[in-house]
Amino acid sequence: MHSYSTIQAIYSYVTKNREDGKRVGFVPTMGALHKGHLSLVQRAKKENDLVICSIFVNPTQFNEKSDLENYPSDFNRDKELLLSVDCDAVFFPSVNEMYPDEIKTEGTELGEIAVTMEGANRPGHFEGVVTIVRKLFKAVPADASYFGEKDYQQLAVIKHLVKSEQIPVKIVGCPIIREENGLAMSSRNERLSQMGKKKASLIYDQLKWIREHYFELSVSELIQAVEMSFDEHDEFNLEYLSIADENTLQPFEDRRTSNHPRAFIAVWLEGVRLIDNIGLQE
Ligand code: AMP
Question: Is the dihedral of CA 107, 113, 115, 118 positive or negative?
Fold first, then answer.
């Protein structure tokens, strides 16, 4: 597996391979890899001749300094995992390489999809995501790029970016990979205790409960019931629970408003912020 840390080197690698007729897939990550990330690499491997994974903990998308400082990282372990799924190259730039002048976001129009949920609760987060993804797409001009539905709103924001700025890359959304107990895999899960990981199964259980009862109860009844369940468990702090349309990401009250409903949740447990979502017509 090739390893590059400069934009110039990864750019030459990608363009040379594309000139040779190879189809290139790209998987951007922040490292601390798990099976969720690896599923994206595997999907990209199936659909392309070669796959590049980037590992970069992007400072501009963290709205809480402590979250950035505590973000797990182990490059050697990540490299081993990427080798195990036959990844062709890893791009591992420094902060200075990606932000040579100043560590700041670059102005962008995010659209109404970025206003709700993560957009409302993490000020500046999507501006940071768009800033780095735009830079990464310039450095790695791939045919297709793979993102997880775990960060469903992020996936929508990136689709919007590519469309509005006419970036020539296909965006592919991939399903959420879960632990056996249903907890969505996340690098942040490493900060939970064993007990916390067990208890966190409540999140997916509640999402499944919403899906099961979606056509029986009203949206406000569903939300109230889940809020009550979390209230009964002191260790959880529910930040938001929204039932929203998958395409517009606008929450709604009346079920008839949306043909593509999805439930979205953000919960705090042991000081760790966990997000998850579920399609309600699956
Ligand atoms: P991150 O390293 O958290 O920025 O994630 C990098 C990519 O992996 C993003 O597109 C995420 O949505 C995706 N991802 C993270 N966790 C999962 C998961 N459990 N299942 C599927 N994709 C995931």
Answer: negative
